[in-house]
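Batch job 17 of 40 flagged for manual review because the log was empty.
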Amino acid sequence: MNLQTIKQRFGIIGNSASLNHALKTAIQIAPTDLSVLIEGASGVGKESFSKIIHSLSNRKHQKFIAINCGALPESTLYSELFGHTKNAFTGAIAERKGYFETVDGGTIFLDEIGEMPPRLQQYLLRVLEQGEFVKMGSNIVETTNVRVIAATNVN
């Protein structure tokens, strides 16, 4: 797929050397199964790049979900990502699958990863390194096979 086709498909306007280089890099890494960190200022289209990478990957027919890590409190974010068991906390009236379970085989885009609390980053590291996680309120190690694409606007 050439650059012009990708720009049209994803609504990207512009033709600078840096934009074209970034798109070529996205095209190059898409077929790999590597985790990706996208850095850039707010509003430059980091989520669009995550969608490009997913749509050109071997996971393109699987689920894609985008999560804004800076918009959710730590306890909610943990439950959203990893799930929870019944009675794990007040109001947890049923077990809930997290995104790492429901998107298994697909891609998770973690926007504003720099806003994720350091404690949660430790749990995310376990997913990245070993594909393992534990639901809130459980001690059972579960496995997942997701591609993580993360983005940040801070160094």
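Reviewer: the log was empty due to a logging misconfiguration, but the result itself is present. The first helix runs from residue 3 to 10. Unflagging and moving on to job 18.
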